[in-house]
Amino acid sequence: MKFIEELVVEEFLPTVRSMLAESLRARDLTQREVADVLGISQSAVSKYAHGEVARNDRIAGDERVVDLVEQVADGLSTGDMSRVQALVEIEVLIRQLEDGDLLADLHEAAMPALTEADIDFSIHDPDSRIRTTEQVRSSVRRGLRTLTSMGDFARLIPNVGSNLVECLPDATTVDDVAGVPGRIFDIKGRATVPSDPEFGVSEHAASVLLAARSHAVDVQAGLNITYDAELIAQFEQAGYTTIEFDSEASEELETTIGEALAEASLTDTFVLYQTGGFGIEPISYVLGPDAPTVASVVRSAT
């Protein structure tokens, strides 16, 4: 008697770990770094790298497995993907392959009696919230990498700091929006990101994003930067919609932004801005479909 879980442990995981170790080493990670990323010993990495661990050829040759290994290796090597997200993505593929797919076929080959039994081994795998949250955090990381690679992004950071945020698809509150704890600040002419993205840490930028979404505007990410007329003109020249809203009505942000958006013809990524007031710093907000897109628009338009 052989359970499908045994097949996962004995065939799938060693194959995938071996492929990941090889792929990470090809990205110039040291043996110690690979061991730390995968949570295994250096001796295990050495065995994987030298082909001392047997691979299942059908698993290693499956395009979905190959694609996922490359995706995970890219994410782990750049820091865009956390170990939690890597684990979730691999787990999702395992469940997919168990559901009348590759692992189910291998299981039947190991247990021929299954083909004669009238038993449904289908496994339902709904999208989990943890997978979605990790994908959003990864997206913010990619956007931050674009911003910090800009030599002059620091000049766009307002006195209150910037934040790059992205929300869950069904976001309704600030707790559904991921951003940088403590915001992004200009430290001696360099954009400084103090911590890894988390949910519920950016009330201001998140509130503007949620206010736009509450008026059926299809955006999931936003970035606040400094305001000046020349900067707005640059966005307009690059083909992006720019819309002014009333900074004095900050206590009625949702209504104020709704009024500003009501008659606007919006591009996929657009700019909301307010020119300041008594005790209010003028700020621009770039809103778009995801954090990397927003960051790329700021880089190209400014």
Automatic annotation (TrEMBL):
Residues 20-48 form the HTH cro/C1-type domain. InterPro entries: Aldolase_II/adducin_N_sf, Cro/C1-type_HTH, Lambda_DNA-bd_dom_sf, ThiN. CDD domains: HTH_XRE. GO terms for molecular function: DNA binding. Pfam families: HTH_3 (PF01381), ThiN (PF10120). It comes from the Archaea. PANTHER family: HTH CRO_C1-TYPE DOMAIN-CONTAINING PROTEIN, TRANSCRIPTIONAL REGULATOR PROTEIN-LIKE PROTEIN. This is HTH cro/C1-type domain-containing protein. It comes from Halohasta litchfieldiae.
